[in-house]
Design goal:
The chain has about 140 residues and is an all-alpha fold. It is built from three helices and no strands. Helix 2 runs antiparallel to helix 3.
Length: about 140
């Protein structure tokens, strides 16, 4: 049962990551989609970051669930010899690392949204007064 649950969480994580990539690319400043409103583009980027954080949490839950089950089975008194029991492999450590990096990337995307006081602010270039110009 725990293997099927881990598989389901990993599939959900893959789907969330795929949609997170799509939403984040749309929310980047270098794309032309939704170019007329930078605040909307910031919110789209934050939505992509939230999807990445959820993706990382699903990955972390799946890997940790499997590691908990492996630890439980290893220390349980059974008739299975010690050399035939499962142990932590490199895939678990890769899973923990990828979950951490995915959540870090999602949190960085969430920090890219402009602050409330800067959202509607426009900056205009002030022209020089005519007296400051020198004619040669």
């Amino acid at each position: 049962v725990h293997i099927q649950t881990s598989r389901a969480l990993m599939v959900i994580s893959l789907l969330l990551g795929f949609f997170g990539i799509i939403v984040s690319v749309v929310g980047m400043k270098c794309t032309k989609v939704g170019e007329e409103d930078p605040a909307t583009k910031g919110r789209i980027a934050v939505a992509g970051g939230v999807l990445f954080i959820l993706c990382g949490l699903c990955t972390l839950a799946a890997v940790s669930l499997y590691a908990t089950q492996v630890t439980y089975e290893f220390f349980r008194e059974s008739t299975v010899p010690i050399n035939a029991r499962y142990e932590f492999g490199s895939a678990l450590f890769i899973g923990w690392g990828s979950a951490s990096l995915t959540m870090l990337g999602g949190s960085l995307l969430c920090c890219s949204c402009p602050a409330k006081e800067q959202r509607g602010q426009q900056y205009y270039r002030q022209s020089q007064p005519s007296t400051a110009r020198e004619y040669v």
